[in-house]
Structures are given as structure tokens and as C-alpha cells.
Amino acid sequence: MDILKNNFFVVIIILVSLGLGVLLDYFSGNYGFFIKNINYLDDSGKVKQLAQIDIPVAVQILKLGANFLYALAITIFITIYISRNLENKQKQIHEEELKKLSQEINQNVFSGLFRKLIPDEIFEIIKTDIIENKAIRKKAHWNFVFEEVEDNKIKLISTTHYELHNISSETISDPVRIEIDPLASTEMKARKAICVADGKCIVNYDASTGQSENIVIEDRENGAKTISYSLNVEPKNFITSTFEYETIYSDSVYDSQTTKYPIIDLNINTMFPKGYKFSLHPSLSSELKIVSEGDTHQNFKVEGGILPRQGVIFVLQKI
Question: Would the CA dihedral through 5, 7, 10, 12 be positive or negative?
């Protein structure tokens, strides 16, 4: 419809051409045809007759004119259609190039402004961790559940849950690698790893059942292990990840947890046995607020942004 509206004159030409073609076809059909008998000799010398239809010259001219007008109308229509499609395609490409150029200019202006305000060493960190970052975590939960076990040791079941959002225009890869060393001061082992994209489970690991899907487990020296997997996130899409591990501490707990990607809003939930004191020491860009607390639990919330490598130190001591 856009083509017809923007090329009214051309449409008139097409309709006139088609109308004249139909009219010439109609007039050509009103002429009669003549049959002529032609005598000729065959190979044996006998005289034979051949009937030949004689089409008047006027009919031939009218048919030729009608076919020309039909071809003209079709040619004009195809030419306009193709030229308009090419024009729209070039316009789309031009708009995409302008958008890309605008983004690059904005980024360069932003970078130039920051370079004037802060030292280059600090700017490079901001550029890598914030400006050029292609992923963020949302709806993040860090859950710490402590319990006493034999020999006065403390067991921690830690669960990390979040949505990893790709905020760029290209597919990103998020490699996950977990090192488990039995010779470390604390005993640690992975319990579960589940990653879901568009309702489909793409990574599934459960140490209790031995289930291992799209995950690599490498046995190393001295009983150490490396658990690794990689997540591909499509542009403007996200993957939901849940990772659970277990750590055994000899007595009191002094440990930390940080984030690899920026986080928007974080919930931290803790449960611990009676007779213990739990404390949290944040190193965050946004304020950490206590939501609720009691003798055996403390719940915290961070409303706002958290930068890469920021996190908390958590301490559990017997009273």
C-alpha cells in the first residue's frame, strides 16, 4: 500500500497500460480469420492441398500492441517494487550504522569525560568492570546454613542463586570453574549445580546421585577436583543459575563471598545453631540493611548495585 500511495502517477500509468492492453485484445478478437488452400507437390509428384490460417495484419498489430502494454505495466510495477525494497533496505542499514556510530560517540564522550575527572588507573578499572561489562546478575540470593557436626566442627551449606542477564547485542559465554582442594584448611565439596534457560535445564549436577549433564569434572593430584562448565547467553536473554556447595570448618568460621559480575539487588539469608554469634562485614557500593534477625537467623538485603569483586566477609563464633 505504501508503494501505491507514494507513486500515484506510476500507478495511473500501470492501470492505463493494462486498460489499453485489454482494449486492444478486445478489438483484435473482432476481426475474422481467413483460411487459404495452398497447392503443392509432394515427393511423388502428386498435387496436394494445405489449409493455412491467414491472420490479418491489423490483428497482429493489435496483439503486438496489447502484449507490449502488458509487459510495460508489469515492468513498471516490478521496477518500482524492487527499487522501493532496495530503498527501505538501504535506509535500514543506514539507520543501524547511525545507531552504532551514535553509541560509539556516546561511549567515547563518556570515556573522555571520565578521564578528565579521575586518574587513568581508576578509569581502566571502571571501564573493564562497568562500561564494557556485558552481563549483570539480578534476583540474587546468597543463603548460608550452618550446623554443628562431629568433633565440634561447623558445616556450611551455601547456596548461590541468580539470573545472569546478557545486556549486550551479542552472545556471551560465562565459563564457571570451581577448584576443590582437600589439603586446604577447610573441606569443601560441590553438591549441586543447576542452570536453566527458557525453561530448559542446560546444566545439571548432583553429587548425591552422580548426575552430571553438560559439566566437566577433572580429578587432579592429592584428591583435588576441578568442576567446570560454560554458559552461553543470547542477547537480551538470561539464564537462571543455582549452585550449592558444602564446607567443613574446624571450629569458628571466617570466610567471604564475592561476585564475578555486577549485581542489582541482593538478598543474604543465614541460619545458625543456638549459642553462636553471626556477623557480616560488607564491602559493597550500596547499603546492606538487616531485614530480620533472631537467635538462630539473620536476613539482609542490598537494594541497589554491587560491583564485580565486591562482597561480604562472614564470621560465626561460639558465644
Answer: positive
| Nearest residue to 266 via CA among 244, 282, 243 | 282
Q: What is the mean pLDDT of residues 219-234?
A: 82
Residues 77 and 215 grouped into a single domain: no
How many domains is the chain partitioned into structurally? 2
| Contact call for residues 312 and 318 (beta carbons, < 8 A) | no
| DSSP symbol at 66 | H
Q: Is residue 130 in some structural domain? A: no
CB atoms within 10 A of CB 181: 16
Instruction: List the beta bridge partners of residue 146.
Output: 156
Of the two residues 150 and 300, the one the predictor is more confident about is 300
Contact 241, 140 (CB under 8 A): no
Mean of the pLDDT values across residues 293-306? Answer: 94
The three grid cell numbers given for residue 198, joined into one nine-digit string: 527458557
- At residue 269, what are phi and psi to the nearest 5 degrees? -120, 130
Closest CA to 261 of 193, 309, 312, 196: 309
Measured CA to CA, the distance from residue 295 to residue 136 in angstroms comes to 34
CATH code of the domain in which 213 resides = 2.60.40.3680
Domain that holds residue 214: 135-318
